[in-house]
Specification:
single chain, 713 residues, mainly beta, Maltoporin, Chain A, 22-stranded antiparallel barrel, 5-stranded mixed β-sheet, 6 helices, 39 strands, 5% helix
Length: 713
């Protein structure tokens, strides 16, 4: 058996007006804004805010929020690409993803690129941590963290049914609710099935669709009648079957025929299965709580996709063809199915198994000494995860859109290795408050041993493999000061950022020093924050999603600086609600270096960090009158570059308009949502391989039924 992991997370007090405060408080991270125990520019979105425009893609739902950078990939949100405050957005590999305070990426230390993207329909709220607040999460502590929070027990029966349909074959069905089993036991559940036929066109018709099954059950049991001892058992899983590809388009095709898919990728497909179980015990006291969780997550995915093409000149990389189609005219014709009988395609089965498991404890205690209020938070985590590569490649003859397998690869012949990580982490954070002034001081420790085991051609794994090791022991301090007035919190903070280095012994962890200062209203969504992050030993990854060979190996680059300003504003005037978000970012390398990483290239000091827009923003106007409501939203990103050494912004300004209208009566509601109202299919990325466009206009009509049992008095 692999070792288990013990980790600490602490949350500031949650809104005690909600039912089951112990269970909620122990799985949340961010305090309500009126609590000065929490400093920093954190964001909290409830389910209504996240689902306002029925965006199936979490990248678009989160885009435009202060300090958040999102890069759509497939149009359906099957791959979450989120960055926070200048971190890279590629597969959300530079932020920490959690569910109910538990690490949720398939292998957060060994392979942080999140092939599992949380389906946002099921979450009661989403917490985005920035600044020194993220010290309690880890292992990524540079830009930020996201904690997806499932519903907690209300102790009365309620059910919600959502049925929706839309263009491009969209079908959605969601069932969620709570069933009281006894006075002390509640069962919470959620199940969803959603899919689409796709909006891309190939020689065989619509493609690029998907089918996703997602669900969970959570049992919460009170061991006594005094609200002291509690048990929680959770099981959840996801099953994806999708016709997705790494192959994008040439720049000309992306601008002129954005919805086509080249014929050579018509057999590309993804199979992914995920299952997670966890059990928790909570001990609640008037001045604090203690919680322990044990968890295990297994993920298997096999992305069978076009890797190379031979049109008579030897196997050629797809990236080279799409970036220089005139120089590879024969290969480009082959991608379109116009090649000769000698055209060969290499399809690679990126078959990988992920394991993540551990034990996590956390505790919180508050007391008073004279006129001082003290809050102590501490915890630890023991964790193990790994990614197991067992891949092969097949070769097909491809002519006139016909595939004929000629060589069947041996399983393991295109990747036969296992990268694993043992990690122990702990932290302590103390908050001291007197009158309007409070100080928060914390220290996190990470002890990480990463291993790389390469079995080579030993496909049965019987012989002694080649092994590499990389050990990191780091201390990550953070501090903040908050001054509170009756309506405002003013704060300043600083912390050290850290990103694990992987298994190659010569690679060093990425480190940074981050500072922030700002102000936030206690009741209204009004805030402004300025920040700066100084990066050293930037980490790049050899990922196929970023244009690399797909080995997953990390390597160091140079240094960089990211400066930014974030603003948030909201106001209600009679029946109209107006909300606005704005981010301004300056990000560039401060050191020259040579790199084979496609996103960097050969960098000169002063070159911009790729995929980081100078401006991002959004505004929303919502009108409500009795049972009728309507809303409009615009999300904007300024132009950006896909490579630091490119010298130009090849990704243009992005502007997307979304609208929504809803009518409710009794327990029912009908809704019509339109994403990308103007059908602006601008280029949004030049990866994984080739250019990609924003999804076309999406229309979804839905019916919602809510049943609630009268609350017990």
């Amino acid at each position: 058996m692999y070792p288990l992991l013990l980790s600490i997370l602490i949350s500031a007090p949650a809104d005690t007006s909600l039912p089951a405060p112990v269970e909620l408080e122990s799985i949340t991270i961010v305090a309500k804004q009126t609590d000065t125990h929490h400093a920093g520019a954190a964001l909290v979105l409830d389910q209504k805010q996240l689902q306002r425009f029925q965006q199936v893609d979490a990248n678009t739902a989160l885009a435009g929020l202060p300090g958040i950078y999102a890069s759509p990939e497939d149009g359906w949100g099957l791959r979450l690409n989120i960055g926070i405050r200048g971190t890279g957005a590629l597969r959300s590999s530079r932020i920490t993803l959690m569910e109910d305070g538990i690490l949720t990426a398939p292998a957060p230390y060994s392979a942080p690129a999140a092939y599992y993207s949380p389906a946002t329909w099921k979450y009661a709220q989403t917490e985005i941590l920035k600044g020194s607040a993220q010290l309690i999460s880890g292992p990524q502590s540079t830009g930020g963290a996201i904690n997806f929070v499932l519903p907690t027990a209300t102790e009365f029966m309620h059910h919600r049914v959502f049925m929706g349909a839309g263009n491009y074959g969209q079908v959605r069905a969601q069932f969620q609710g709570e069933i009281p089993i006894s006075q002390r036991t509640q069962l919470l559940y959620g199940f969803a099935r959603q899919g689409a036929s796709g909006f891309q066109q190939s020689s065989k018709g619509p493609t690029g669709g998907y089918l996703l099954h997602d669900g969970y059950v959570k049992l919460q049991h009170h061991l006594d009648n005094k609200d002291v001892h509690h048990l929680e058992v959770f099981a959840g899983g996801t099953k994806e079957r999708s016709a997705q590809t790494y192959l994008g388009l040439t720049e000309w095709d992306a601008l002129n025929t954005p919805n086509i898919r080249y014929a050579a990728a018509q057999n590309d497909s993804m199979f992914m299965d995920r299952f997670m179980v966890r059990a928790g015990y909570i001990y609640n006291r008037p001045h604090g709580f203690f919680r322990v969780d044990i968890y295990q997550q297994n993920v298997h995915r096999n992305w069978y996709k076009l890797n190379k093409i031979d049109a008579g000149n030897g196997m050629t990389s797809l990236s080279s063809i799409l970036m220089n189609p005139l120089n590879y005219a024969t290969e480009y014709n082959g991608l379109q199915g116009l090649g000769s009988d000698s055209t060969r395609l290499e399809l690679k089965a990126n078959n990988r198994y992920y394991l993540s498991q551990g034990v996590q404890v956390k505790g919180q205690y508050s007391n008073r000494i004279a006129s001082f209020t003290l809050k102590h938070e501490a915890g630890a985590r023991i964790h193990y995860d790994h990614i197991d590569y067992f891949q092969h490649s097949d070769v097909y003859r491809f002519t006139l859109n016909t595939f004929e397998k000629q060589i069947e690869g041996t399983p393991g012949s295109a990747g036969n290795k296992l990268n694993g990580t043992w990690a122990q982490s702990a932290y302590y954070r103390s908050t001291i408050r007197r009158n309007q002034l409070s100080g928060q001081f914390g220290l996190r420790a990470e002890n990480i041993l990463a291993t790389g085991i390469n079995f080579g051609t030993d496909y049965q794994r019987k012989d002694t493999p080649e092994a590499t090791f990389n050990h990191s022991l780091v201390l990550i301090p953070g501090a903040s000061i908050t001054y509170a007035t009756p309506n405002w919190n003013y704060f300043v903070g600083a912390h050290r950022g850290f990103t694990p280095a992987g298994a190659k012994p010569e690679v060093l962890p990425e480190t940074s020093i981050a500072t922030e200062f700002g102000m936030a209203h206690k009741r209204l969504p009004i805030a402004i924050t300025a920040y700066q992050s100084l990066y050293d030993q930037l980490l790049g990854a050899d990922m196929a999603a970023g244009g690399g060979s797909g080995t997953g190996e990390l390597y160091n680059g140079g240094s960089a600086v990211v400066k930014g300003l974030e603003a948030q504003w909201g106001q209600t005037v009679k029946s109209i609600r107006i909300e606005g978000n704005l981010s301004y970012t300056q990000a560039h390398f401060t050191e020259s270096f040579e790199s084979s990483f496609e996103g960097w290239g050969d960098v000169n000091a002063g070159d911009p960090l790729p995929y980081l827009p100078a401006f991002t923003g959004s505004y929303t106007v919502q009108w409500t009158h009795k049972k009728l409501s309507a809303a409009v939203q615009q999300q904007v990103l300024s132009a950006r570059t896909s490579s630091a050494s490119l010298g130009t912004n090849d990704l243009p300004v992005s502007s997307v308009v979304n609208i929504n209208a809803a009518y409710s009566w009794n327990a029912f509601a009908v809704q019509l949502a339109v994403q990308n109202l103007t059908n602006t299919q601008h280029v949004v990325a030049a990866r994984p391989i080739g250019y990609r466009n924003f999804a076309p206009r999406m229309i979804v009509a839905s019916l919602v039924w809510n049943f609630k049992e009268a609350e017990k008095k």
